[in-house]
Amino acid sequence: MSGLKILSGMMLLKYSVLIQFVLRMIRIYPWTLGKLGEATWAIAAFNLLLYVLASHVFGALWYFSAIERQTECWKKACLFNNTGCTRGSFDCYDSLGNYEFLNEFCPTKPQNTTILDFGIFQHALQSGIVEVPDFPQKFLHCFRWGLRNLSCFGQNLQTSSNAWENFFVILVTISGLVLMLFLIGNIQIYLQTKATRPKEMTLRMQEMNEHMPIQKLSRSVQQQLKIYQRYIWRKPDTIDVESSLSILPKELRRNIKRELCLDLLKNVKEFKTLDEEVLDALCDCVKPAFYFKHTHIVLEGDPIYEMLFIVQGKMWIYTSKERTNGSANTSHSRDNSKFISRKDHLADGDFWGEELVAWVLRDRSLSNIPMSTRSVQALKNVEAFGLMAHDLKHVFIEHQVASSTEFNSNYSVKDAARIIQLAWRRRYSSRNLLKSVL
């Protein structure tokens, strides 16, 4: 193998190591951060891995550069001596010769900086690591050199006047500083996250209690909920009751919604006669809703897409005329050619959107969904449960809930039976009283 090919191979290997490392980091670092997400400890461990990998790369460059520097010194020595050696005398297939003069012109043991200064590569040449055939020994020695000098930012490196050598030390210093900042920064973030997690858990639980009145649940359900609170607290986003409930087991989620919503649903006249199975299905469909103070929930003339069951807060129901007159008392409005008494203010336990019940019993066509004859505005922050029109329609169809005529007939039969029963009891009591007198 010619000396030119050996030199070209060494140069290619040296630069390919550095270029390969840079290209891999550009590719891997953003992809890894996206995969790790909010796992701070994993990001810190990944930055430590980058630090170790960079130490290996700089150690390898130091090793190759030391060999290259010594080879260049030998070739220069041949040019200044009349011993018959040339630049190609150090090729693998060149004949043997007397090259003792190289120890005088390129002294490494001991070093003579007045003749030639090897700079940061003196240790590699003086320790003999470039001559050792054992690869693990070479690898560990070069890795230790890279790790030590990255950690101290190259402060202990004494360079010569060689331009490449000074550039290499500058690169070591900057790389060590950047990698150390990333590593320490991510470790600090991880420690701060662990320290502040208990406080965040407390605040998240308080916020969750505000949006979902846990105190209204039975003690057994509250105990089950506490078991799963740690999974809810780990969510990085702000508290979302619906997503928090979705984490819980299906049975516990159903029990929570049932205890919170069942009494609210039974406030609706038509729902009181429904089977428990239908009520459970409606409880599964309701979703938590929150409206800030002064928020317009529905405007006059808008379609009514959901029923609202107020858990906490206060809403004002008004027409455009009532708003102009500043009315805040109980009023009467015409709806479907019938006079229905409505309160202007709805509070805890009240509901709005009863028109949907009549609609789903009468028509069930989304094209004929009822329009709101009044506007609805939150006077305070309102926490409620919403039952969407399509969910109500789906439950009624799936469970084959009777139509409005059947509802009315059921009411008539029950009322008639109740009247007959009372009349019979009254007649029976009168007969017993008459017998006792006689």
TrEMBL record:
<keyword id="KW-0472">Membrane</keyword>
<dbReference type="GO" id="GO:0005516">
    <property type="term" value="F:calmodulin binding"/>
</dbReference>
<dbReference type="InterPro" id="IPR000595">
    <property type="entry name" value="cNMP-bd_dom"/>
</dbReference>
<keyword id="KW-0813">Transport</keyword>
<dbReference type="GO" id="GO:0016020">
    <property type="term" value="C:membrane"/>
</dbReference>
<keyword id="KW-0812">Transmembrane</keyword>
<keyword id="KW-1133">Transmembrane helix</keyword>
<keyword id="KW-0140">cGMP</keyword>
<keyword id="KW-1071">Ligand-gated ion channel</keyword>
<feature type="transmembrane region" description="Helical">
    <location>
        <begin position="12"/>
        <end position="29"/>
    </location>
</feature>
<keyword id="KW-0406">Ion transport</keyword>
<protein>
    <recommendedName>
        <fullName>Cyclic nucleotide-binding domain-containing protein</fullName>
    </recommendedName>
</protein>
<feature type="transmembrane region" description="Helical">
    <location>
        <begin position="167"/>
        <end position="191"/>
    </location>
</feature>
<keyword id="KW-0112">Calmodulin-binding</keyword>
<feature type="domain" description="Cyclic nucleotide-binding">
    <location>
        <begin position="270"/>
        <end position="367"/>
    </location>
</feature>
<dbReference type="InterPro" id="IPR018490">
    <property type="entry name" value="cNMP-bd_dom_sf"/>
</dbReference>
<keyword id="KW-0547">Nucleotide-binding</keyword>
<dbReference type="InterPro" id="IPR014710">
    <property type="entry name" value="RmlC-like_jellyroll"/>
</dbReference>
<keyword id="KW-0142">cGMP-binding</keyword>
<feature type="transmembrane region" description="Helical">
    <location>
        <begin position="41"/>
        <end position="64"/>
    </location>
</feature>
<keyword id="KW-0407">Ion channel</keyword>
<dbReference type="GO" id="GO:0034220">
    <property type="term" value="P:monoatomic ion transmembrane transport"/>
</dbReference>
<dbReference type="GO" id="GO:0030552">
    <property type="term" value="F:cAMP binding"/>
</dbReference>
<dbReference type="GO" id="GO:0030553">
    <property type="term" value="F:cGMP binding"/>
</dbReference>
